[in-house]
Structure formats: structure tokens, C-alpha cells
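Hi Y.,

Following your request, here is the sequence exactly as I used it, all 191 residues.
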Amino acid sequence: EYKYDGNYGVRAFDPASGKLLWSTEELASKIGDKFSSRISAIYPLNNKVVVATGDNLLSLDPKTGDVVYKTSLADAKIGDMFEVHASKDYETLFIFCDEGIAAAEASTGKLKYATKTGEIQWKFHMSGTYSFQQGNNLFIWVGEKDFIGFDLATGKIKGKMKDNDNPQLTADGNTILLRDGDKVSKFLVNN
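Below is the corresponding structure, written out as C-alpha cells. Let me know if you'd prefer a different format.
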């Protein structure tokens, strides 16, 4: 079993000398986050380092460790962050949390939305992944055997299908096929 050795946090080193320039542990009071629970993502973006802790989305200056912005999702009540992705144009950050998804402007950290989805099965879903994209639709496993369709642009839940742990979708992601013996039912994904 692997056990992490040391404290959670981010460290910056001088590439020529290997000397430690700064660490979030040293700057914890200045940053306002102890990095005690986990680091969900470290993402280089727009000459900054975006870090998702369990509690905050931070943009740090890589040379100094200064906070460019800090966005808390505590008021959204969607759980701890576990993953961050940037949009294709790098203007929006999508923040996946234990019980929801949020989006923030990459340059300012300003929240666009925070949507409660139910418990996202990011740890142990039988498919090996907690989400998948089919066509323009994002599908996320929530609960034990349920999944939802989610619109990343608006933060709206398109729909939820219960008790289906192995959905079959058309290539465009707009139709879900549910098989029950010889019977096949079609469900249109809200577009």
C-alpha cells in the first residue's frame, strides 16, 4: 500500500539550482488554506498555477506563490473538489466535486455556476470512470446505479436515469437505449 510521505501542498523550485523558492506550507497563512485534506488538481494555465484543494480553487503566481485569486465553493455545498478541467478555449475551469460540478472563469476565478448533482461516483464506479462524454453531452454516475446528463455550458442537469448501470447510447449521445430482454426503449437526451 502506498502512503504519501510529507505534507500536502505545492512547492516551487529554481530549475538551475534546485533550491526551494516557496511552498504552500510556508505561505499557508498568507494563502488562507492549509492544504490539509487533499490536492485535487494542479493545472498550469495562463502563466499561473491553478490548484484545487479540497476547499478552494486557487490561482498562484509560479514565481512567488502569491495568490492571484481564491475561490471557495463552501457556500455551494457541493462537497470537496476532486478534479479540474479547462474548456477547449481555456477560458472556463470545470470543477468536479464530491456532490456537484461548478464552473469558474479561468482568469478571475469568478463562479459561473455551482450545481448539486448528487454523490458523484468518482472513486469506485464499475465502469472505471465517473463520467463520459458522448456527442455534446456529458454523463456522470451519481448514486450507485444512476447517471445524469449534464450541460457544462449552463450547469443544468439535462435528465437523470435511475437503476441503469450500463447505459447504451447512440454515437451522437442524443439517445439512450435501454434493453429489457427483447424490448428496447429509447430515451431522448434533452438538448
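Helices lie at 28-31.

Thanks again,
Q.
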